[in-house]
Hints:
disordered C terminus; 5 helices; 7 strands; alpha/beta
Amino acid sequence: MDDRVFILVAEDQPDDAFLFEHTFAGxxxxxxxxxxxxxxxxxxxDGAGQFSDRLTYPVPDCVxxxxxxxxxxxxxxxxxxxxxxxxxxxPTVVFSSSGDPADIRRAYELGANSYFTxxxxxxxxxxxxxxxxEYWTEANCPKLNPSGRCVV
Length: 152
């Protein structure tokens, strides 16, 4: 059985996306796809267009979500996920530069499972990403059946 975890990352900042790639490559137990736009993230989740091949673009075990995405923001992505039965229970971690209490509260109200603020120092970002990966992939991701649905 494959123990690798698949994470969908919604991140539009190239520097932050590079950190995700670097950190996940170092962990070696994570597969991921980075979407750089809100509409692209929803298309991925919905299996639309190029993302219809679920062998190449699997249903994510977890979603790592930036709030400040172009065209469709992270809040709208959370709303979309929670309105679609197949994605309602997918663990979603917000990783945003915003530490505004109103943003944090809204993200949780829309169904985020965790909220982390981005760090200025690269070492701190890598440490947080490693903690997120460890917690959500080892302790909290639900077991999925072969069709990609949560087994509760």
